[in-house]
Amino acid sequence: MGRALPNPPMIAALCALAALLAPVGPPPEAEPPPEEFGVVGFPLIAYAPETSALAALVGVVFLPGSGPRPSSARLTAVYTLQHQAAVVFDPTLSFADGDWEVEGRVSAIRWRFPFQGFDGQAPRRWYTQPAFSAEMVISRRILGNFYAGVGGSYSLTEIDFGRRPPPQGLRGLEGGSMGGASAELRYDSRDHQLTPTRGMRYLARFEGRPPFASDFPHNRVTTEARAFFGDGRHVLGLQAMWYGIWGDAPFFNLNTFGGQSEMRGVFRDRYRNTHSAFAQAEYRSPPVYWRVGFAGFGGVAATFGELGPFTPTWSLGAGVRVLLSEARKINLRVDGALARGEHGAYLGLGEAF
Hints:
Layout: H1 8-21, E1 38-48, E2 52-63, E3 71-80, E4 85-95, E5 100-115, E6 125-143, E7 146-157, E8 176-188, E9 199-209, E10 218-230, E11 235-247, E12 275-284, E13 292-305, E14 308-325, E15 330-339, E16 342-349
Antiparallel strand pairs: 1-2, 2-3, 3-4, 4-5, 5-6, 6-7, 7-8, 8-9, 9-10, 10-11, 11-12, 12-13, 13-14, 14-15, 15-16
């Protein structure tokens, strides 16, 4: 058994209380986003230890809108020499002067992931996971910068450990389908979705996957806080997040961190359990030469719960930011990071959080 778990309703209440104490009103003063249609994108060739060489096409489409943050849709397509492929579409739309917002994600992947037990210390076993998933949340402004939202999700997953026998006793070794619904309360005063420089975002979300809609019925609670401080040039970003699961979640849907945005430097899915939490900070400089600036970041994280012991880790890194579009405030992000016993390199459009 892991350590005593936090009280989920209490955590959700504290998150809501923090939002209530935040200033309610219009978002911080910012330059109005361009109203016209626009596209920012680029191809890239890169290398990472878990993928070998890869080729990717990343683009963001900006749509006309009248909300406090620009509407956009990001498309990422990746193929690696390990025969991994992924296509991910992330729209974030704002309507009626920001009174309505829609966030979604549709992804189709064939990717390999590590399994290293529930404390991240077992020998690494790779498995291939072809999967399709889709999710959407529709939010309505209820007061100032507060939004209430409802949504739904569906995923279909297969699992293949290849020639090596899979670990015994894992729930979900055959893959399966999961469908469910969600409800959330959110406070959001950020000045930009992809490259925020000022404002705050608090989130409390409940997701339910009932037996009639999922092969693995379980519930998940998510709480998150983000805050950004700056003068329009220098930016300090802070993020803290906690996930908790109750029920019969499959091993491939347990709570974790790592990868492009959460604790860079940690292999995604190395640490898994019913609960995970992390806190990270990042400093972003203004351009110091032409359109090139720098960033430094670090964080601490842990997984815990009934599947394994309390397992902490850390990450530390730095990166380069290249301003691709001044009007759209879009950066090309190139990061390198170290963690306990591993490292990673990352490229993307927009900031990690």
